[in-house]
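Q: Hi! First time doing this. I have a protein sequence and I read that you can turn it into a structure. Is that right? Here it is:
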Amino acid sequence: MVPFSRQMPTVIRPSQIGTDVTYEPPLRIGFGISDKTVEGSNATMGRTILPAGAKPNPTHYHSVNDVCWYILHGRIRAYFSRSDGTDRKEVILEGGDFVYIPSGAIHVISNASEIEDAGLIFCYIGVGNTDAAETVWIERQSEVGRRVAGE
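A: Yes, that's right. Below is the predicted 3D structure, encoded as C-alpha cells:
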C-alpha cells in the first residue's frame, strides 16, 4: 500500500498532456499516466489515435514489460510475432476488443480503414515511463544498419 499521504487519486485532463506525434509515427499518442504526471507511477497509460489510412508504426517490442490495449473505435490491423520474428500473425482488432501483449512479443499496428480514424487505450505494466520499457525498435535498428553499411 502507498503511504497514507499519497492515497488520493490523480486526474489528468487531455489539455495537460497534449499529443505526441514523434514516439511512434504515424500514431498520435497522449501519454496520460506516467511518472511525469503521477508521482511514483508504476505504469504508463495513454491513448493512441490512428488517423484514417495510417501506415504501420515502427516494428518493436518491449523487453521488460507487458502491454494491454483496449480498442476504443475503428478497425486496427495488428501484426504479432515472437521476438525472433517467428509465428507472425495478422489480426483485425475492432472496438471493444481487449489485447494482452507479453514482454518480448513484436507488435505493429496500422489503421485498417482509409476513411475512419481508429483509437485505443494502452497500458505499459510495471514501468513509469517509455524509457523504462526498454523498447527494442527492430525497424529503426535495420534502418541504422543500412545507413552504416552505406546502402
